[in-house]
Amino acid sequence: MPSLHRFLLGCLTLAAFAIPGHATAQASDAATTARNTPMPTSSATPSRYGLIGTMRTKPGQRDAVVRLLLRDVDDLKAVGCHLYVVGLDHEDPDLIRVTEVWDSKDAHRASLQLPDVRATIAEAMPLLTGEFTQTEFPVAGGLGLTE
Which run of H or of E encompasses 33? Predict the structure, then answer.
């Protein structure tokens, strides 16, 4: 499953902050607050965990990182991922946008603790600048998402 772990690299917007002593662990107060703020839930509608993030690559490294993010995406279904979309930016050739939907925040967090995922993150970090953003949200539904 090394490919799955490379694919989960897209979760760097969270995982990079979880690596003790790594430069990206110095997240902004706003990102830290957003990451630690409980998501609202409704007792009437079960909610999945959504995450939209960006990561900036070093010049010329975007395609290499995108290749890592897109390997064996189907394997993510087994660990609770329902949607994983990697997007590019028309105006910024070094910016990658990632949109994810998971069973829960805990499923996402647990996937980031797998040893191979952490090893892949360490492999990819040299290709990144350390600039990440993230927005978490409860998922109400959408095209392609089953109940």
Answer: helix 29-36
pTM of the model: 0.70
The Cα–Cα gap between 6 and 120 comes to: 5
Q: Cβ distance 129 to 20 under 8 Å?
A: no
List all residues 6 or more positions away from 84 whose beta carbon is below 8 Å from its beta carbon: 7, 10, 73, 76, 98, 99, 100, 101
What are the strands, taking DSSP E only, across 45-121?
Answer: 48-57, 81-88, 95-102
**Where does 12-47 show beta strands of DSSP type E?**
none
Domains of the chain: 2-20+49-136 (3.30.70.100)
> Which pLDDT tens digit goes with each residue over 13-36?
344 444 444 444 434 444 444 445
- Length in residues, the chain: 147
